[in-house]
Known about the structure:
Layout: E1 23-27, H1 31-42, E2 48-52, E3 60-61, H2 63-67, E4 76-77, H3 78-81, H4 86-89, E5 92-94, E6 101-104, E7 109-113, E8 116-120, E9 122-125, H5 146-155, H6 169-172
Parallel strand pairs: 1-2, 1-9, 2-5
Antiparallel strand pairs: 3-4, 6-7, 7-8
Amino acid sequence: MTSWPPAPPEPQDAREVGAVPRDVVVVGAGLAATQTVAALRDRGYAGRVTVLGAEGVAPYDRPPLSKHLLDRTAPTWLTDEIGVDLTAVADEVHLDRPARGVRVTGTDVAVATDDGEVTADALVVATGARAVRPAGWEAALTLHTAADADTLRAVVGAGRRLVVVGAGWIGAE
């Protein structure tokens, strides 16, 4: 006697739907990427994890960039802030290898970089957000990265005028 509905067939390949991927590529090297890789490892994931970052620096906490723009000149590193060292939980971490594009096929993903493609069974996009500048505002400064904070620190000072556009958390701070 057969049961209804019939049980799905066992995966024949690690790339089939529902199967645990053999390898994962994470695009982004900030808090979301760090927490994702840590969660994978905490839940027993033993596959290969490759992280691609664009800033060339270790993961750091972004909120202090605006909260402490003028009184803290160094980033708040995530290894100190949350106790997770991305380089210890991922197999490969490339902090200065930004993703330039992605190709998804039926069997894998390929992330294009300046140094060639990085392929994996699964992709996590943890790139965060960027400020949108209207046309003609190319010279306007934004605050998203540690380098942005350094630039702002260099131009903001006593007697200087500053206009903040945006009333979100960063603008309010």
